[in-house]
Design goal:
Shape: elongated
Strand content: under 5%
Radius of gyration: 12 Å
Number of helices: 2
Length: 48
């Protein structure tokens, strides 16, 4: 879904922010506690 230009056109959306939003709202709920901490550390230092 993220890479489908019909849904998230790169001209209209910053794909790194779309990815970050998808992670924060959907994927994070599936992570273990350790995985959540790892991902949080990754996103805090990354400028995807």
């Amino acid at each position: 879904m993220l890479l489908n230009p019909a849904i998230f056109s790169p001209e209209l959306y910053d794909l790194s922010e779309v990815f970050r939003s998808m992670y924060l709202y959907y994927v994070r709920g599936l992570c273990t506690e350790q995985g959540s901490k790892f991902a949080e550390a990754y996103f805090s230092r990354s400028s995807i």
